[in-house]
Amino acid sequence: MNLDKVRKSLPIYRIRNRLLEEIQKNPTLILLGETGSGKTTQIPQYIHESRPKLKGLIACTQPRRVAAITVAQRVAQETNTELGKTVGYNVRFEDCTSAETKIKYMTDGMLLREAISDPLLSRYSVIILDEVHERTIHTDVLLGIVKSAQQKRQNSFKLKVILMSATMDVDEFSNYFNKAPVLYLEGRQFKVDVFHSVQEQTDYIFSAIATVFQIHKTVPPNEDILVFMTGQEEIDSTVKTISELNKSNSKLAPMLVLPLYAALPSGKQLKVFEKAPNGFRKVIISTNIAETSITIKGIKYVIDTGMIKGKLYTPQNNLEMLKVHKISKSQAWQRTGRAGRESSGICYRLYTESEFEKMSLNTIPEILRSNLLSVALQLIALGITDLVNFDFISKPSTEALNSALNDLELLGAVKKNFQNENIVEENVNKKRIISYNYELTDIGRKMAYFPLDPKLSRCILTADKLGCVEEVLKIVSILSVDNVFHAQTNTSNKRDQAEAVRQKFVSADGDHITLLNVYKAFLANKSSASEWCSENFLDLKNLKLAVEINKQLKEICNRNSIKLSSSTNDSVKIRMALISGFFMNAAEYQKENEYKTITSRQIVQIHPSSVLFNSKPACVLFNELVKTNKTYMRDVSVISSSWLLETNPCYFKSKLKNLADNLNTYDLNNRIR
Ligand SMILES: Nc1ncnc2c1ncn2[C@@H]1O[C@H](COP(=O)(O)OP(=O)(O)OP(=O)(O)O)[C@@H](O)[C@H]1O
After folding, report:
1. Keywords, A to Z (predicted)?
2. Contact 612/511 with Cβ under 8 angstroms?
């Protein structure tokens, strides 16, 4: 079938004219239509076909870069144009658009970044926010930005807004946009049969592997399989297990088993869209990155483990954790919808029907379960000075917002100004509420240039002062990718070998300098990178990605007059720069391997993966806390408690009563500036 015929066979084609009328009539429209009905690929085209002379661009945002890229490729094909001309895409670190571009697929994060320099989003006539049910932080914030831009553009160049999904809570979105009308699109192009497990599964990885082989043994090899799992390590090891098991049975057809997760370089991610060699079955093991929007040709079977790794945040102790937990019903339907896109399909859910019934209907918005430091900085950079009163679709708790604002102030990124004072009556008591607005400092403005956690951006700016930007950029780059030390050292023999090899990179100063040593050694051995990495049990793809990120960060430094200074062997300077961003993450040794964090007085321990696991430095700095059976510090460096005072005397003066004796003797008066 030619592409024109395929387009006309999609369910959405039946309502094309009605849809265009509604878009014309209403400033905002909400569209609820089944997965695969044609929303993402067709609506931007319909608008462009009906109004080719439209003044501004038609943007369609996606929560993930892989979706933005592959959908743009598909639509360029359907319009028979070269990608980057009429149809383009824009994702972090990659802009494939031109002056001719009319339809632009982009990540929600990119549109948010554009809003920093243009809060009215004046390049756009139509903004389509796709997959809004995912409720990523970026989508939630964008909803507020787009709504405000639309209100401000009432009289001049009007902005149309369309919200789309297959599985959203339409009332919530409609109410937020002043009772915007909702259009329902029924029907899907191809049927997907759903099967639930009869019994509850105790080991979803085992069940997923067993299901893959049950399918593999019984159906022709040209029917591909997509499996949903939770994270990189689990996926990498499942890919390995399935490949090895299949190879060991000569009676089975060959398999091409591929991983798919966000930390994979773009080129590797796009590999899953390529056809498998003749006679091979393609099996893709993916995180929720493949859950929405995308069409992978050949996928006939979806295996849904029902699990996801997601963020969880407690503002009381500023602890953000990644935790494996059950998906929501709306995610289950999205996963199901990845089959049945070119012909009928089957979805095997590795949970019972009653477990499905117990799942929550919608996903809890990310904004309600994240540390808001980055978002707060971005919003203030957008000129939104009163965050507590910002029109969020789901308002984060005042506690979480204040905690983020407080941290930004401590980082020197924002300045607080008195706004007004209100007296509110609560029962018989009167309560004084003082509100503030916030503006960026010079440092904060520079921090907002970097697409990084503000704490990391702060380290780069201090490194600029101390003259060690090159080293800190390398550390930041390597911290921005997943583990570079190989996790796949299954046997204890291999683990011992890996441990012995790792010793040559290890610095007694801790993980950060160790990572810097790894990065430098990788660069020195670039010509034989692949062999060198396998000899040293290092992850080639993550290191390559770190080099790529380093390149991008250097470009941002160059654009913003940050000199690429270097102090090769000055580990103290480097750790001082790290303290400037992470001084809130310091801990003191107590007893029996236990530490206490200086800020929240939590009991923590050094993570077994740290090079400092067997040492007991008196004071350490860490990047993050992870909670399993205990709370562990990850990415840990040795510091001196006096450096904390030197970096941020006012903050630590108030904590002094909690600090160890050595700090009590510290001569504060000499240091406070
Ligand atoms: N890259 C592709 N290759 C082949 N067919 C595709 C491709 N992209 C889309 N299609 C076809 O177009 C149909 C509609 O896709 P589209 O992404 O527009 O649907 P949708 O309604 O937005 O679904 P979802 O909510 O799942 O993203 C798919 O079911 C598939 O048949």
Report:
1. ATP-binding, Helicase, Hydrolase, Nucleotide-binding
2. yes
Q: Is residue 307 very low, low, confident or very high in pLDDT (cuts 50, 70, 90)?
A: very high
Ligand 1 pocket mutation pick from 41, 66, 163, 167 by most atoms within 8 angstroms of CB = 41
In three-state secondary structure terms, 604 is strand
To test the pocket of ligand 1, the residue of 34, 40, 343 to mutate (highest count of ligand atoms within 8 Å of its CB) is 40
Residue with CA closest to ligand 1 atom 11: 341
SS3 268: helix
DSSP state of 608: T
- How many whole angstroms from 292 Cα to the centroid of ligand 1? 10
List domains and CATH numbers for the chain.
3-185 (3.40.50.300), 192-366 (3.40.50.300), 375-442 (no CATH), 454-562 (no CATH), 583-671 (no CATH)
Q: How many helices (H) and strands (E) does the chain have?
A: 26, 23
CB-CB contact of 611 with 511 (8 Å)? yes
pLDDT at 614 over 70: yes
Contacting residues for 669 by C-beta, under 8 A, at least 6 apart: none
- Sheet with 28-33, edge to edge strand ranges: 94-96, 87-91, 103-107, 57-62, 124-129, 160-165, 28-33, 182-185
Beta strand residue intervals within 522-661, DSSP E: 586-589, 595-597, 603-606, 619-627, 631-638
Nearest ligand 1 atom to the CA of 37 is 21
83-113 burial string, b = 16+ CB within 10 Å, else e? bbbbbbbbbeeeebbeeebbbbbbbbbbbbb
CA 38 to ligand 1: nearest atom:
18
Beta bridge partners of 126: 58, 160
| Phi (first) and psi of residue 434, to 5 degrees | -100, 130
Confidence tier at 489 by pLDDT (50, 70, 90)? low
Task: Give ligand 1 pocket residues (Cβ under 6 A).
Answer: 10, 33, 35-42, 70, 74, 166, 189, 292-293, 295, 297, 337, 341-342
- 572: buried, middle or exposed (CB in 10 Å: 19+, 13-18, 0-12)? middle
Distance between CA 231 and CA 517 in Å, rounded? Answer: 27
Span 627-647, mean pLDDT? 88
Query: Pocket of ligand 1, candidates 83, 341, 344: which has the most ligand atoms within 8 Å of its Cβ, to mutate?
Result: 341
Ligand 1 centroid – CA 39 distance (Å): 8
ipTM at complex level: 0.96
